[in-house]
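Deliverable D5.2: sample structural annotation.
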Amino acid sequence: MRLTDVANTKQIFRLVQSIPSPKAEPFKLWLAKVGYERIQEIENPELAQDRAKEYYGQGYPKDWIDKRLRGIAVRQALTEEWSKREVEEKREYSILTNEISKAIFGVGIKDHKKVKVLIQNLTTRTFVTI
């Protein structure tokens, strides 16, 4: 119905880099910092794990963080093995992720999403007393 320009993430970043305005400079510096950090994490994967712990440490208990990181590692190992065996269907990977979630947290992905939405609704809801 309408002619719309679209761009993927890489194209958006390139567009931002091309903006000559000084107002774009803080975002460009942040983008360069994040890119540098990701390159460091590729060279040293423990840095990525430390970053994840720091991120999850803001509101999650330590045992949950440990389970989450183990779940990520297990899923990566299993998906690598599946890739070697030429399993390519997204549905198969979805099933794998769901089973790992059940084993680690006791709930599947759909139920976990419902809990997250419920928690977000409870924490962001404004109550008005009349």
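Annotation notes: The chain has a mean pLDDT of 81. DSSP finds six helices and no strands in the chain.
The annotation will be released with the project's public dataset once the embargo ends.
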